[in-house]
Description:
Oligomer: heterotrimer
Number of helices of chain A: 13
Order of helices and strands of chain B: EHEHEHEHHEHEHEEEEHEEHEHEHH
Helix content of chain A: 40-55%
Distance between the termini of chain B: 40 Å
Structural class of chain A: alpha/beta
CATH topology of the largest domain in chain B: Rossmann fold
Distance between the termini of chain A: 52 Å
Strand order of the largest sheet of chain B: 3-2-4-5-7-6-12
CATH superfamily of the largest domain in chain B: Thiamin diphosphate (ThDP)-binding fold, Pyr/PP domains
CATH class of chain A: Alpha Beta
Strand order of the largest sheet of chain A: 1-2-3-7-6
Number of domains of chain B: 2
CATH topology of chain A: Rossmann fold
Strand content of chain B: 15-25%
Number of strands of chain B: 14
CATH superfamily of chain A: Thiamin diphosphate (ThDP)-binding fold, Pyr/PP domains
Radius of gyration of chain A: 19 Å
Mean pLDDT of chain A: 97
Shape of chain B: globular
Order of helices and strands of chain A: HHEHHHEHEEEHHEHEHHHH
Helix content of chain B: 25-40%
Amino acid sequence: MQLSRDDLLSAYGTMVTIREFEERVAAEFETGDMPGFVHLYAGEEAIAVGACLDLEDKDVIASTHRGHGHCIAKGCDVEGMMLELFGRKDGLCGGKGGSMHIADLDRGMLGANGIVGAGGPLIVGAGLTAKTLKTGGVAIGFVGDGATNQGAVFEAMNLAVVLDLPVVFVFENNYIGEGTGVEYSVGSGDIAGRAAAFGMPVEKVDGRDFFAVHEAMRACIARARNGEGPSGIEALSPRYYGHFEGDPQAYRGDGEVEKYRDKDDCLKIFRQKVLEAGLLEEGDLDQLRDKARKEVDDAVKAARAAPAPGKADLMTDIYVSY
Amino acid sequence: MAKKTIREAINDALRQEMERDERVVVMGEDVAGGAGLDGEEDAFGGVMGVTKGLYGQFSAARVIDTPISETAIMGMAAGSAATGLRPVAELMFCDFMGVCFDQILNQAAKFRYMFGGKATTPMVVRTTYGGGLGAAAQHSQCLYGMFTAVPGIKVVVPSNAYDAKGLLIQAIRDDDPVIFFEHKTMYDLADEVPDEAYTIPFGEANILREGSDVTIVALGKMVLEAREAADKLAEDGIEAQVIDLRTTSPLDEETILESVEETGRLVVVDEANPRCSIAADVAGLVAGGAFEMLKAPVKQVTAPHAPVPFAPELENLYLPNADKIVAAAKEIAA
Amino acid sequence: MSDEIRKLTMPKWGLQMQEGTVVEWLAPEGSDIAQGEEIVEVETEKVNNAYEAPFPGRLRRHVAAVGQTVPVGGLIAVVAPESVSDAQIDAFVAGFDADFVPEADEGETATPQTVTIDGRDINYLDIGTGDGAPLVLVHGLCADLNGWMFNHPVLAAGRRVVALDLPGHGASSKDVGDGDVAFFADTLANFLAELDIGRAHLVGHSMGGAISIAFALDNRDRVRSLSLIAPAGLAGDINGGFLAEMIGAEKRRGARLALSQLVDDADLVSRDMIEQFLRYKRTDGVPEALAVIAAANFDGDTQKTVLADRLGAIDIPVMCIWGDKDQVIPPAHSDKLPAGATVHRFENVGHLPQMEKAAQVNALLAEFANESE
């Protein structure tokens, strides 16, 4: 299926925004001015954007600890995100969530999650809401390769199938769970096959290829919207950074990341495909990259200048009423 | 006014709220029962029979039988609540929090704060607690204290049918996550319960008996023991004021402190283990807020720091009861 | 002589009362008591109240000690002249105890009923029989038929007595339509028609007074007499601050503060009274009903419906009972009544004379109904 020029521009713009955001966060984090810890998504942009390009605000995603990319792909405000990562009062979550818990329910973003695998059951809940209230929405759960070993995710997959919910599981296989390889930690070695055993169609795709992800997701989303139940994709693509920033990544082979960046980069693959097909011009893409870079730069400036939350904010937002 | 059991009162509350609001759904293991089998539909109506009949009225779309997957049940409740439903999930025994606590502790309880006030999570978890059935260590615990310790959730422990209905309706209409504890030996206790829907606000303890000699603070089933103890104490001329906490989060600190200021003596009764418990919490509250009014040490009547035993003889020794409360009260008020 | 010995027994206040506890003897042994004098304070599950002597005499013996719980109808004191010896009193007490059997719970037989009026369920209690026209008791704002617990059983001794829960109150439907006096008067008219009550002695308290007046103005032929207790509807002013507190009270503390303004002696407000009030307030539909009623009837410190000047035009016997310490509606409003009206003013009584001075109010109501038959 041919994407429109606008769709292609939107897809690349979002991917490159994620990349610029993550590279800049890595640099900002190194200054020591950003609190806590961050898990960067660079390298996996095609998965988030391929999965979310066709989603609407009524559709809900549940994310992971590596959630910035999902956030941006689902339409969260970049400046609000950067403020949140800096722990600012006007951040997306008022400075109370930070990188690992960034969320925006108005955008259908049910939160990054500090607990590996916890988003699985939550997205089943979002699917139940869509089905019960007949919103027409779908629920997309991002699940890392490490999380596929969590019982919570097994329970979630089974329940989604049992209740026939409009849920799509996106298994993001970046080959490494924290510091342990998938080859070691996934007993069968086959994430898609294991998920399929719960009774839903699951397609394995090249996660570096936006078009492959998008095409597979289009089918999953259509199935969910048509009331045909859950399904999933396993998308494989490396991450360029450590499990967290500051991770010495001693588990990596020599030159591994450089090879990914050079040969397997999702942005390069996208560029090559659209240029070869004559769908977009080089200038279009450079312009999007420059725009993204400026947007992120502005966001950092705004975040650095923004006020921190204060005493008055400590005890608010715990309960609706107490 | 009709007398209804706690079981009927809770069923009333669920039915009326489901009629009132299409967003209210019930979910859990065997909340109907019989799915996928050739026998009766609605075979269980919940393992305690509390949800019986709802399936017939609201169908499988709103009375949702789940696999034995407590994590997924709690997570589905949290996720559906954050996206627009008002689920009432059943956790068959509160002991099973051991397999699903993350979805309550780290998810539902935290959404609102982590997300900067943008999330509301109007979910209710109905669960059972307490000893007395010989169900032993994994099916008899009183774990409301652990939930009470978590900011972001509310905890309700009703002691009678009237309160059970009003507090459950309040819980369902409440926009925060609520854990609702039902004592598994109390379902058949009856009380006058109006047919109409009504609410009881959280954080208002009930004063069940006036008295000026000693304050007895209790919750859940221990309220029954406390009332019996108060009657026995009255025979010996000791007038106890009995306070039913109703909710442990929020906690009605004001009523507790005011009562102790009046009586100068406190016995806290809790069926749970003593360490980091509601009893210890209330004792600490009074030590900090009414120390100068105390005429005697605070007494805590609780289960011992041991798992719940199986043999009836041991379980009887284990559980707090009216006699133990009377003895504690007499130590400080005689 | 044993016929000079008279017994004082535990009164029955309300259908559910089965026993009472003596809190304090107000009249000492050996004192002369007057009819209507408060002689003993009694606590029940529902209320605390003083028991007023039903007849005069010398109080010879406190049979029930302070703290003692006695079933309804059980002996609590003996009244007899000095000529009766202590031994005779001992024998009387022993004889009473030997014969006394506590009554079966009357609540089982006299339970409220429900009729549908204008699409609303109306809960009412209908007890007693007699030749005269029935007494119909109409409660005030935030009250219900249980507010007549001290009056209902006593008045029913010689007459049919009907007490209803107005819409928005008690166990009746909570929809109150326009919520104004005219709405309630219409409901009352249709309710009485449904019960085939052709002519009634109306007793209205507070807002129920205004409703009773409005009903009488439109239904002259259906009213034998009009007894108004601290009625609304006679003049403009009313304690709007109190109304706001009563309607706004959500928890025990606020309820106690509001209810204690209803009576002169705040000790009358029992834990159970507060609990029943809160249970009412927390029923679905009640906050909305009270908001509608408040908006329809009051504007700050002003009543919107004043009917006193029309009352003179109809020829109905009118009696009015008011406490001089009423903090809700000024007792001086009784000046607005037609010249022929009988007015009784009680000293040291608040807005609930029917509860605070139950025995005397009961006597006045029964007598006035008899006179007006």
